[in-house]
Amino acid sequence: MQPLKRSDPEWRIRAEPPIATCHWPLLAKALKQRVHREYGERLGLAWGCRFKQPGVLFGAMTWPQVFTDVCGAVITIETFDDPACARSRELDLTAAGCPFVAEVDEYYLPGYITDRHAVHAILVIERTNYLVRFIDARLSDTAETVTADEFDAMRSTPCDGRVEPMKLYAITRDPNREPSSAALLSAVRNYHRRHHAQSLAALHSFMEWARDASGPIDVCRPAGERYQSTILFQHLATHGVTQAAPIRDRLRRLTEDWYLVHMLGTHDECLKGRRRARVIRLLSQLIESERRTSALVLQ
Amino acid sequence: MSAINEAMHNTFDTKFDRVIKKALKLSSVPPGDLDLSSAGISSFDAFNLMMALEDEFDIIWPAEDLVAPLAMTTVDVLRSRTREILHQGGQ
Question: 3-state SS of chain A: helix, strand, coil percent to 5?
């Protein structure tokens, strides 16, 4: 068998989506099952930065609000310090017929032969006191079942990449309208006009933290937001929005730069000395890249 | 090539070969035209290789080289770029 070349289409298809993005295709899958429309390319409606705790830079996490504005759907992002509260909420969601995407420790998932405890997202179709039915898109589209005890373990075990406790994304109201491409672009612009300065300030504060600290510099979440927004602008570019292509190209480069900073900032060998200084320098360049990207969006 | 330059050249190549053999877990020095991605080397392996080259030659890769480590398609291209960075004063 011939090895794949990087230019082969199959290579691109086989490539796994980057880290911090696996919840979006699952939400799109759930939306499609409910309203029979494709939303996967239209979820990345907002990107930004939020500095909530040392070591980790979050994305804006405001794309669900913009999605509500344009589609009428409600997607909530929830975390729980108390496992009992998480369980209660999950049971309520199933009782209300709402699917949700849950962050779990992949070590406990059926079909995985791994020693690695790492966070992964699954789509929960049904959660009761006894069992949980879910789809793990990495393995197949067929629903798997685990016991409630197994699910509780995978939800609560500390694992690589789990920063927020028992996080879930719930679809609590279905889309009720179909936005035009122009409406999507307008919504993105309105968001940026209102929140861009705040996001840059958060990024700047994070960079200051990273300069003075010595631990890992985790920025995969903002990277993932830009990845998803690149998909949105690719969608707009292929649906007649002439301004979208240059924004898509800039977002694509921005995404690569964010993932590079994440790779360097979380690599054990890169956390001090001139290698850390390189990461800080890249973060500083990202501030300018973010500014230029938003200027392009708002043109 | 002067004797001194030749000696420096050989030292560089010897070190480079040692690093690449170790980083890619090979039993012998790979051919110069070996395509890194076709050889099944992941981006992460390539990135670790570049970090090992930084350590060996006391250089620091410019960010643009690290964005897509496999863009340095062959062993020869990587060797040549490493030498270039080294001669630029390690960036």
Answer: 55, 15, 30
Among A70, A71, A72, A75, which Cα is nearest to A26's?
Answer: A75
Q: How many CB atoms lie within 10 A of CB A224?
A: 25
- Chain A residue with CA closest to B58: the answer is A274
Interchain CB distance below 8 Å, A278 and B60: yes
Top-confidence residue, B53 or B36 = B53
Exposed (0-12), middle (13-18) or buried (19+): which is A183, by Cβ within 10 Å?
Answer: middle
DSSP-derived secondary structure for A236-247: HHTTT-TTHHHH
Q: Tell me: the pLDDT tens digits for A229-284? A: 999 999 999 999 999 999 999 999 999 899 989 989 998 888 889 899 999 999 99
Query: Three-state DSSP class for A123?
Result: strand
Closest B-chain CA to A5: B38
- The complex scores an ipTM of 0.71
- Give the bridge partners for A120, in sequence order: A104
B-facing residues of A in 246-265 (CB < 8 A) are 256-257, 260, 263-264
- Which residues 89-118 in chain A show a CB within 8 A of chain B? none
**How many other β-carbons are positioned within 10 Å of the β-carbon of residue A116?**
10
Could you say which of A4, A6, A269 has the minimum Cβ distance to residue B51?
A269
